[in-house]
Amino acid sequence: MSSDLVIHDLQARIGEKEILKGVNLTVRAGTIHAIMGPNGSGKSTLAHVIAGHPGYEVTGGEIWYKEHNVLELEPDERSKLGLFLAFQYPVAVPGVTVANFLRAAINAHRAQEGQDPKATAIPVAEFRKQLREGMKQLEMDESFARRYLNEGFSGGEKKRLEILQMTLLKPSMAVMDETDSGLDIDALRIVAEGVNRLAGPSMGALVITHYQRLLNYIKPQFVSVMMDGRIVRDGGPELALELEEKGYDWLREELAGAA
Ligand SMILES: Nc1ncnc2c1ncn2[C@@H]1O[C@H](COP(=O)(O)OP(=O)(O)OP(=O)(O)O)[C@@H](O)[C@H]1O
Ligand SMILES: [Mg+2]
Fold it and tell me: Which atom of ligand 1 is nearest to the CA of 46?
């Protein structure tokens, strides 16, 4: 069974606006793959479409993961398959504590059709232990567990919470949209260490970022560039360095020259 995430000729729009114009991308199982690209090129849209966000209309193409046509699955089924999405702007859920949210998410994953959810639920003591360990690794204060999800969280706190979710849910493929944005230097290191602990043979990651800086901490094997709704260049880590140094214009010019 292939655990590569394979995106083929993906097209998507919002209302009348065509945003993804035929994205081709394979994220190999157990590898870190970075996507870079100018503002507005469609990176977050791609992440949202992979997650099954209802605001986007997929007008063509396919996404395959573990022999499933992902576009035919509901968002919770995608999550059960091992796909995890960390958003650029996580939503706040007042009234739901961090601990309750995480426990519900874990139990949703453990639930089996036709079985009493109580029988498959994580034992409370086991959950508390995992939560405590995860929060300790991410240097989060224990009081966070009792706060409402993302409500009043600072930018950096939201990002840590996303990594905490990943730590507890153990996805096999994580899509991270600008996980580095708004992080101070210590938080960047903590978040990157969290990702590095998880990434490896059992978890691949698609990491969307603007800055080489993050890639100093989270080392990608592959780098792709998105422009105007398409992947226009694939390479290795050296591509990120080249973009950092030279910006995007040279690539635009090369592409215009080739057209
Ligand atoms: N809800 C929406 N309504 C209208 N246009 C939208 C909507 N969401 C996204 N777009 C447009 O789609 C295009 C791609 O946006 P997207 O957020 O995917 O870009 P991005 O590559 O993630 O950019 P950034 O680097 O700034 O995060 C932009 O022109 C944006 O304005
Ligand atoms: Mg974005």
Answer: 18
